[in-house]
Design brief:
alpha/beta, 8 helices, 8 strands, 39% helix, globular
């Protein structure tokens, strides 16, 4: 593989994850991306990425990724896998809360733990976070979405904590809110809230614009500012 930089993207089949893969390929990275099923691998492969199919961040053993990676050293690990279930105080349930914690918080932590030996000195871990995980911004982002907000707040704590441990490996960490991105997740949320079809895309950005912002943030990250919480759409830090 020579001097080519290697990026490993978990959750790469659609939306922000897929757009990040395409951006990284355009920037000269060799990209390895995970998808949950063979049915969702075609667009990623067409973009030029190497695909690991059958990995579910909530239920698969992250150690399986190590077998796929063999002795590959990773320059950039991006964890973009995530789910959002619409809930409120009247209908929130334990099953949905646990499902979102598994995907959005526990899964990313276990992936980083598993692939830590493969992270190159000077490498970077980018966790795709959300402004909805910010306690300081809860009045700005509105109510409801308990499972999503709680799981993204937990991801923030995991990322800030691992930044301290990975510093000894010379690996930096960022938590990046991708912006309000028009994906299936946002469409489902807005349709559920009764937003009119002609306004469903209002005040949102494309996955491609988000990927550009995420890449720009990653370029600013180092051991000196490791563990910070960023907004990809502004390039600025967010309050926890």
């Amino acid at each position: 593989m020579g001097d080519e930089k290697i990026a490993f993207v978990v959750g790469a089949s659609q939306g922000v994850g897929l757009a990040v893969c395409k951006k990284l390929i355009a920037e000269g990275y060799m990209v390895v991306g995970t998808v949950r099923s063979d049915a969702s691998r075609s667009e990623l492969e067409s973009a030029g990425a190497n695909v690991i199919a059958g990995f579910d961040i909530a239920t698969s053993d992250p150690q399986d990724l190590c077998q796929e990676l063999d002795e590959t050293k990773i320059d950039l690990l991006v964890i973009a896998a995530g789910i959002q279930e619409v809930d409120n105080l009247n209908n929130v349930g334990l099953e949905g809360l646990r499902r979102q914690m598994d995907v959005n918080a526990y899964g990313p932590l276990m992936v980083v733990q598993a692939v830590r030996p493969y992270l190159r000195s000077g490498g970077h871990v980018a966790l795709i976070a959300s402004k909805m995980g910010s306690i300081a911004n809860v009045t700005l982002t509105g109510g409801e979405l308990y499972g999503y907000r709680m799981s993204k707040a937990a991801l923030n704590m995991a990322g800030a904590t691992m930044a301290h441990e990975l510093k000894s490996d010379q690996v930096s960490v960022s938590l990046i809110h991708p912006g309000v991105v028009f994906t299936n997740m946002l469409r489902t949320l807005r349709e559920g809230r009764g937003v009119a079809p002609e306004k469903i895309r209002d005040n949102s950005i494309t996955p491609e614009a988000s990927a550009d912002g995420i890449y720009s943030v990653i370029q600013q990250c180092s051991l000196d500012n490791t563990g910070q919480y960023w907004a990809a759409d502004t390039g600025k830090h967010l309050e926890w």
